[in-house]
Amino acid sequence: MTESLTNVEKLEFKRITACDIRQLTPFFSLRPNKTCDSVFLDSFLWRDAYKVRFAVSEGRAVQWLMENEGKISSAMPLCRQEDLPYFFEQIVRYFNQELKRPLWIFLADQEAVEYLNLDPEQFEVKEMEDLKDYLYDGEAMRTLAGKKLHKKKNLVNAFMREYEGRYEYRKLCCSDRQDVWDFLSFWREQKGNEVEEAWELDYEVEGIHEILKNCSHLHVQMGGVYIDGKLQAFTAGSYNSREKMAVISIEKANPNVKGLYQFINQQFLIHEFSDAVLVNREDDVGIPGLRQAKLSYQPVGYARKYMVRQKNF
């Protein structure tokens, strides 16, 4: 029987900060979730772009509020799977009673959607096909063994031959932030303004700056590739211990250096996530070139996401 909501405490939402990681991290592993939202880093990275706020409820769950273009949304509560119906009803009531609007969850993970099995008379549930995360076999990504990944291994070998004696992979830390900032300025200039997602790129760069300012607080792994002593590629990610999954949130490289993306992709996993069984490399946001690049690494599955909208309010 589902718990009663007769005595619900008032949810008090606050802006997410780096100092919240100690409090919030345990909640991320309470139930199955293979999306990139299953780790703290992703919420922190996009906190300004989507005005991310959270509230801890009854010491058992985390509720979320986001805002984009004036539209307020939420995410599935972080809680034990068996508590999901209770806290889902709580966020529904918050939207209805406090915000005076129907609940809208933009990206709900598949595991939560399937567990809740929502009444189609009350909720519209629609898969967001372009926003599914790509999942890969960790060992395959580290070794690039086999016929399917032969081209990737060739690109890595070609890079190593071309820049032999001139490149170095390094584990990065807070003290390397200036190198990363300088590289990001170059990378962003290469992208220009004539791209559909330009505003997101700017927010992403700002988010990376905040990560570097606060990396001593965050459970983040960072790596870079230097060529002739200058940083030419940068990547960052974190680990979902429940799913034994590395979540790669950031990967940037000089597009003019052939094989560099493939090289840092492999080396980062070898050095920082040697035990990861799965690798989540996030979504392709519907961009054909990005989709082709992600498919070329032979995903073993997807972390599907859904829009959940309350129909009657």
How is this structure best described in words?
Helix 6 (150-162) crosses helix 9 and helix 7 runs antiparallel to helix 8 (198-213). The protein has helices spanning 21-28, 40-45, 84-98, 110-116, 138-143, 150-162, 177-191, 198-213, 260-272, 288-295, and strands spanning 14-15, 53-57, 61-68, 71-73, 104-109, 123-127, 133-137, 167-172, 221-227, 230-240, 245-253, 278-280, 301-303, 305-310. The chain has 313 residues and is α+β, with helices and mostly antiparallel strands. It is built from ten helices and 14 strands. It is globular, with a radius of gyration of 20 Å.
List keywords for this structure.
alpha+beta; 313 residues; four-stranded antiparallel β-sheet; globular; 34% helix
Class inferred from helices and paired strands: alpha+beta
Mean pLDDT: 93
Unreliable stretches covering 5 or more consecutive residues: none
Computed CA radius of gyration, to the nearest angstrom: 20 Å
Question: How many runs of DSSP E, i.e. beta strands?
Answer: 14
Determine the strand fraction and express it as a percent band: 25-35%
Q: What about the largest sheet?
A: 7 strands, mixed
Order of helices and strands: EHHEEEHEHEEHHEHHEEEHEHEE
The helix content, as a percent range, equals: 25-40%
In short:
The chain has 10 helices and 14 strands.
Topology:
Layout: E1 14-15, H1 21-28, H2 40-45, E2 53-57, E3 61-68, E4 71-73, H3 84-98, E5 104-109, H4 110-116, E6 123-127, E7 133-137, H5 138-143, H6 150-162, E8 167-172, H7 177-191, H8 198-213, E9 221-227, E10 230-240, E11 245-253, H9 260-272, E12 278-280, H10 288-295, E13 301-303, E14 305-310
Parallel strand pairs: 11-12
Antiparallel strand pairs: 1-2, 2-3, 3-4, 5-14, 6-14, 7-12, 7-13, 8-9, 9-10, 10-11
Helix pairs in contact: 6-9, 7-8
